[in-house]
Write a structure and sequence with these properties.
Helix content is about 55%, strand content about 10%. By secondary structure, it is α/β, with parallel strands linked by helices. The protein has four domains: about 110 residues, DnaA, N-terminal domain (GMP Synthetase, Chain A, domain 3), CATH 3.30.300; about 150 residues, P-loop containing nucleotide triphosphate hydrolases (Rossmann fold); about 80 residues, Helicase, Ruva Protein, domain 3, CATH 1.10.8.60; about 90 residues, Chromosomal Replication Initiator Protein Dnaa, Chain: A (Orthogonal Bundle), CATH 1.10.1750. The chain is globular. The structure holds adenosine-5'-diphosphate and magnesium ion (MG). The site of magnesium ion (MG) has 4 residues, from helix 7.
Length: about 475
Amino acid sequence: MAGEAIQNNYDAVQDEWGEICSQLKQEVGEKAFDSWLKPLSISSFNSGVMNICVPTRFMRNWVITNYSDRIHKIWEKKNPNIKSINFVVQAADMESIGGIRISGDRSLSKQISTSPAPQIYQPGASNTGASLNDVISVPLNPQYTFENFVVGKANEFAYAAARKIAESEDIPFNPLFLYSGVGLGKTHLMHAIAWRIKQRNPNKNIVYLSAEKFMYKFVRALRYKDTAAFKEQFRSVDVLMVDDVQFMGGKDSTQEEFFYTFNSLIEEGRQIIISADKSPSDLEGIEQRLRSRLGCGLVADIHPSDFDLRIGVLQSKAKQLNCVLPTKVAEFLAQKITSNIRELEGALRRVVAHTQLLPGKEITLENTQEVLKDMLRSYDRRTTIDEIQKKVAEYFNISVKEMQSSRRARTVARPRQIAMYLAKLLTLRSLPEIGRKFDRDHTTVMHAVRKIEELIKEDQGVAESVDLLRRSLEI
Ligand code: ADP
Ligand code: MG
């Protein structure tokens, strides 16, 4: 009975949230709504405290600064029980989502992981400080060096280009544009360039940041009418690296600013390095003039790895992890996990962590297979997103066209979310790739995955449907 009350309560706030979203959308406009508010979701509501999930720290800060007051005001009117709103970053970067599995354990609390310390929003208190990070560059990963980068056919060109920049006195080509699918070493190479330049010349001002961070910085500067200072920060940069620029797609004003920053740095003879998941000409939602500017230096892509490269990476990572990896096991992993190096590394880490927990236990083919059982099952049988869309649409009696449409009615939206969830679970496609199949962006997929994960724990009907669909797709 108590459980039912909690459920009802939860459903009620979910409905309220839906209404608040519609209102906010009208107030702030579709664009801002899609960028900042749509990705939010309710995690839980307990004793007056509303926990709302935000996908990244950057978004949390933004939402707290700009929207929390308004959200609280509207909500308070609807439901006086709400005392405070807690914006919680769910560790939802691609890596952690990549690890999702349907767990048979439904007893898991519905509270979503709150890895970084939750930030509590209290009405009336000043939230503008919001621990905003004023350092432009983000820290470099000490493991991402040239020494730790294994070179093979797939990446030798990109490696040579990166190395050339790192070792040159002048600017060999500008910009360097690196692109590849996810987990193939773009970020690693960028950090490696930065480390090497720093080593050769510690006075060089190197800035490495994600496109997302660039956008955040810029939008914040706009808000505080501080764009001059924003520009100034970049003016003193010797080497600017912007990772994952595909995420700038559709953000017109940021793109424009980026375009100017980019041009003036190039004119002043500063080195620029860019990465993306596609070639400049294929970048969606990026203005033509920026695309052509991005592609006017050297464009280098990293191809999917071959068997030898994967073996090389496994040996190198095993050495870093201080473990003995039998050849048989390395070959087994390199044969099975072909999608990307991040997945391969993740698998190795799991096996190593497992064996290190038990003293005296060595890595063998048997325990590797055992530890990776679930993961390998999905590799063995590659379900395609098309198949998933078809099956899910059939199951819910809608058409695949409807599933890909912009309709938001629950009868269509829920099956769409389930299909996105299953695509993440059963295929190796990245969030942006899945998004494209549904004509949505990656944050929508992220949101859908989280939503369904939540519903599986709370709603028997959804849990059963997902389970059934998964089984039928895994056959
Ligand atoms: P991307 O930025 O292309 O998504 P990353 O640079 O984050 O990929 O790489 C994912 C993981 O794979 C990192 O841990 C990185 O160290 C590792 N990795 C990728 N390529 C190589 C390589 N050639 N040698 C060693 N490690 C690699
Ligand atoms: Mg990367």
